[in-house]
């Protein structure tokens, strides 16, 4: 299993929207590196849902429910389908991530603008642990 972080603007599509909808097509990614990450996702992989701009925090965990397919709005790009797993007990802010030494090499810290990014298993597990404290 692989782990990911997917950014969304909560005023456009939030964690609460994902919980309400039970699944969604993750579309509109227009960055080649992020697109390549979408292509690497496998059904069953887990991804953090990160609210960018407003909250700047990891809010919950989703799973990849359908591997990549043509973006419905532009077939030159791709999308995946995700469904919610669970909301974190406590959201983890970007500031929290930056203050945690063991997360200093995370893509979220090194390349914060990338909308779809890999997360190492150790990072994923530590964020879960932090969210339960």
Task: Describe the secondary-structure layout.
Elements: E1 3-8, H1 15-21, E2 24-26, H2 32-40, E3 46-51, E4 57-71, E5 74-93, H3 94-99, H4 107-110, E6 116-119, H5 121-131
Parallel strand pairs: 1-3
Antiparallel strand pairs: 1-6, 2-5, 3-4, 4-5
Which key terms come to mind for this protein?
133 residues; alpha+beta; ph1033 like fold; 5 helices; 28% helix
Explain what the structure shows.
With 133 residues, this protein is an alpha+beta fold. The protein has five helices and six strands, in the order βαβαβββααβα. The protein has a single domain (3-131), classed as ph1033 like fold (Roll), CATH 3.10.590.10. The chain is 28% helix and 41% strand. Strands 2-5-4-3-1-6 form a six-stranded mixed sheet.
Total individual domains: 1
Please compute the radius of gyration using only Cα atoms.
14 Å
Task: Please identify the structural class as seen in this structure.
Answer: alpha+beta
How much β-strand is present in the residues? 35-45%
Order of helices and strands: EHEHEEEHHEH
The CATH architecture name reads Roll
Counted beta strands: 6
Distance between the termini: 25 Å
CATH fold category name: ph1033 like fold
Low-confidence stretches: none
Quick recap of the structure?
The chain has helices at residues 15-21, 32-40, 94-99, 107-110, 121-131, and strands at 3-8, 24-26, 46-51, 57-71, 74-93, 116-119. The protein has 133 residues and is an alpha+beta fold.
């Amino acid at each position: 299993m692989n782990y990911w972080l997917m950014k969304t603007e909560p005023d456009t599509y939030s964690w609460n929207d994902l919980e309400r909808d039970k699944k969604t097509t993750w579309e509109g990614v227009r960055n080649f590196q992020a697109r390549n990450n979408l292509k690497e996702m496998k059904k069953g992989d887990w991804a953090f849902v990160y609210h960018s701009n407003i909250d700047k925090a990891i809010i919950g965990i989703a799973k990849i429910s359908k591997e990549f397919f043509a973006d419905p709005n532009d077939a030159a790009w791709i999308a995946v389908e995700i469904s919610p797993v669970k909301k974190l007990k406590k959201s983890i802010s970007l500031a929290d991530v930056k203050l945690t030494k063991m997360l200093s090499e995370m893509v979220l810290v090194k390349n914060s603008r990338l909308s779809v990014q890999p997360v190492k298993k150790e990072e994923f597990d530590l964020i879960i642990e932090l969210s339960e404290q």
